[in-house]
């Protein structure tokens, strides 16, 4: 017992002489003396070697030793806190702060907002819908029944069957929901992300972004469609861009056409981007199929309409000459910083 008392006195002197000028030093003190494997716990373990008749007296000594260690720890902790407070109080708050980097919108967001802005000036509202869709709104309502061969053009991510739920393959599903809930006249654009089971490469990705448009009213003609898209192209790419329409096929429009513009990379002379034709396809379009109108109780003898759809990645590629679609989703800060001035 006498030996333990001498050890405690030596430890008290060590604790009293300890200088903890930093929070790290104070923490080291706590671990050494008050930790689960610290000196205080080790000394208190010597209680089992004390004779029973001396345990009460020795217990008081141990308790006083423990209280001394805890008090010294609190004293050191308070001292470091005071020093930190004094340092903070003496800080010159008029000094300039650290520079904060200026961020920017993602290039796809920049172009999407530009597309939305252009069509809003033509009176188009913006409509959005769920990315997880049922088969009817994604395919059936768009004149694509289960056995339609055109479904093979859209490799689909199915989530469940019977009933079929899937990741939407186009934002035409949003058009379907608009026609389901509204009566003509209808004039909306539908931006959003879509998904298709395609191999990821410089020219394709398993997800991408679309902006589709729909206009239904009395006496809407193909001439209205062409003038709307002419206006969009000139506002997006400039007055000097040439435009051409090519006959095409889409199940939900009849007649249908794809629209090309003169290649902005080579000026129409021919390059890898335009496959040496001088033209680049940017969207598909056409007059809304009467069957689609009937699916939503819209009289095709009274109303007509047009629809179109474009890929935001393709428009961005042409506008900013991006040569790899994977760059949009890799979060490479070196790529994204190039668009700081384009907000």
UniProtKB/TrEMBL annotation:
SUPFAM superfamilies in alphabetical order: Class II aaRS and biotin synthetases, tRNA-binding arm
Alphabetized GO MF terms: ATP binding; magnesium ion binding; phenylalanine-tRNA ligase activity; tRNA binding
Catalytic activity: tRNA(Phe) + L-phenylalanine + ATP = L-phenylalanyl-tRNA(Phe) + AMP + diphosphate + H(+)
Subcellular compartments: Cytoplasm
Domain of life: Bacteria
Main localization, broad class: cytoplasm
Span of domain Aminoacyl-transfer RNA synthetases class-II family profile: 111-338
Keywords, alphabetical: Aminoacyl-tRNA synthetase, ATP-binding, Cytoplasm, Ligase, Magnesium, Metal-binding, Nucleotide-binding, Protein biosynthesis
Organism: Sediminibacterium ginsengisoli
EC number: 6.1.1.20
Record carries keyword Transmembrane: no
Cofactor binding note: Binds 2 magnesium ions per tetramer.
Quaternary organization: Tetramer of two alpha and two beta subunits.
Enzyme class: ligase
UniProt KW ATP-binding keyword: yes
Protein name: Phenylalanine--tRNA ligase alpha subunit
Family: Belongs to the class-II aminoacyl-tRNA synthetase family. Phe-tRNA synthetase alpha subunit type 1 subfamily.
Gene3D superfamilies in the record: Bira Bifunctional Protein, Domain 2
A Pfam family annotated for this UniProt entry: Phe_tRNA-synt_N
Binding positions for Mg(2+) per the UniProt entry: 254
Stored InterPro entries: aa-tRNA-synth_II, aa-tRNA-synth_II/BPL/LPL, Phe-tRNA-synth_IIc_asu, Phe-tRNA_ligase_II_N, Phe_tRNA_ligase_alpha1_bac, Phenylalanyl-tRNA_Synthase, tRNA-bd_arm
Cofactor(s) the protein requires to work: Mg(2+)
PROSITE patterns recorded: AA_TRNA_LIGASE_II
GO biological process: phenylalanyl-tRNA aminoacylation
GO cellular component: cytoplasm
């Amino acid at each position: 017992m006498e030996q333990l008392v001498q050890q405690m006195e030596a430890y008290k002197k060590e604790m009293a002489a300890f200088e903890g000028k930093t929070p790290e030093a104070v923490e080291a003190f706590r671990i050494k003396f008050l930790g689960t494997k610290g000196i205080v716990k080790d000394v208190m373990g010597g209680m089992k070697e004390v004779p029973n008749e001396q345990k009460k007296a020795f217990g008081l000594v141990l308790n006083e030793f423990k209280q001394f260690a805890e008090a010294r720890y609190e004293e050191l902790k308070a001292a470091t806190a005071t020093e930190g407070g004094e340092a903070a109080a003496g800080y010159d708050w008029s000094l300039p702060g650290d520079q904060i980097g200026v961020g920017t919108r993602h290039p796809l967001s920049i172009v999407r907002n530009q597309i939305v802005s252009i069509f809003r000036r033509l009176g188009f509202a913006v409509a959005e819908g769920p990315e997880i869709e049922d088969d009817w709104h994604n395919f059936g309502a768009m004149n694509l029944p289960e056995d339609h061969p055109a479904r093979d053009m859209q490799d689909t991510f199915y989530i469940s069957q019977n009933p079929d739920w899937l990741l939407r393959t186009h934002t035409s599903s949003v058009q379907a929901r608009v026609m389901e809930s509204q009566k003509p006249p209808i004039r909306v654009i539908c931006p959003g992300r879509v998904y298709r089971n395609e191999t990821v490469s410089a020219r394709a990705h398993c997800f991408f972004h679309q902006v589709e448009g729909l206009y239904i009213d009395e006496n809407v003609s193909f001439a209205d469609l062409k003038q709307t898209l002419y206006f969009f192209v000139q506002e997006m790419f400039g007055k000097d861009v040439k435009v051409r329409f090519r006959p095409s096929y889409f199940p939900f429009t009849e007649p249908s056409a794809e629209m090309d513009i003169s290649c902005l990379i080579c000026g129409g002379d021919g390059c890898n981007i335009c496959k040496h034709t001088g033209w680049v396809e940017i969207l598909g379009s056409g007059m809304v199929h009467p069957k689609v109108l009937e699916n939503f109780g819209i009289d095709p003898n009274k109303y007509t309409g047009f629809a179109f759809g474009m890929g935001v990645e393709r428009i961005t590629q042409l506008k900013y000459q991006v040569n790899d679609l994977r760059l949009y989703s890799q979060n490479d800060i070196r790529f994204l910083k190039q668009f700081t001035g384009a907000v």
